[in-house]
Amino acid sequence: MTSQPIRDPIADHLLTPQNSAFLFIDYQPPQFSAVKSMNRDLMMKNAISTIKLVQLFGVPIVYSSVNVQTGLNQPTLPQFAELLQDETPVDRTSVNSWEDVEFVQAVHATGRRKLIICALWTEICMAFTALDALRDGYEVYPVVDAIGGTSHEAHRSGMKRVIQAGAQPITWVSLSSELQRDWARTETIDSVVEIVLNERLIPELDQPEPVAA
Question: Which residue intervals of the chain are DSSP H helices?
Fold first, then answer.
């Protein structure tokens, strides 16, 4: 029952709190309400759990919205904005976050090469950003059950496009274990159990599976 020595957290080929950054893009009312690829309430819960996990492990966050300052769009949904109140959103006009100078500068400033991405919609704001980041040499990890598209086909096609380009899909639960990695790492284990099991998986055991909205 002796764990191996902790691998280099920077060079590790898996995600670690020291080699990854989190991109959270366009979780605003119009984008969110148009998601048709999965149940929106479930997607919200998954995205909230993802935010809590990256915050727990101190993963740098780049948080973006689109067209709020121009008055053409509404701010980030309050359920997410409250969790991200210590972060300053990068507001932009570009559909593709990677075509916004301040956004790319913020990603570069993290110094991380592995990018965990939550963005709406899958086929547009996630896909375009992921494709450009991959082209620039980043590794990309879309959180597939915390993002959504305007249809099932749109989500599938967006995911297929980025996977073919080299993206590595993950789920919010797999992310929790990849960051934690060893139950002997006691400084975060209680919080991981609370976020993953007590808040989500155990209460949902007896709940019916939600249908797509």
Answer: 29-33, 40-56, 78-81, 101-110, 127-135, 152-164, 172-180, 186-192
| Strand-strand pairing, 139-142 and 61-66 | unpaired
Mean pLDDT of 68-80: 97
Helix and strand numbers (H, E) in the chain are 8, 5
Place of tokens 């366009």: 26
Q: Which CATH superfamily is domain 20-199 in?
A: Isochorismatase-like (3.40.50.850)
Task: Give the residue among 65, 191, 79 at the shortest CA–CA distance from 120.
Answer: 65
**What is the pLDDT, as a whole number, of residue 1?**
74
CB 211 within 8 A of CB 41: no
Q: Is residue 172 within 8 Å of residue 144, measured between CB atoms?
A: no
Contacts of 86 (CB under 8 A, 6+ apart): none
Query: 172 preceded by cis ω (within 30°)?
Result: no
Please state the domain extents for the chain: 20-199
pLDDT range class, residue 2, cuts 50, 70, 90: confident
Contacts for 59 with CB less than 8 Å, ≥ 6 apart: 17, 20, 21, 22, 116, 179
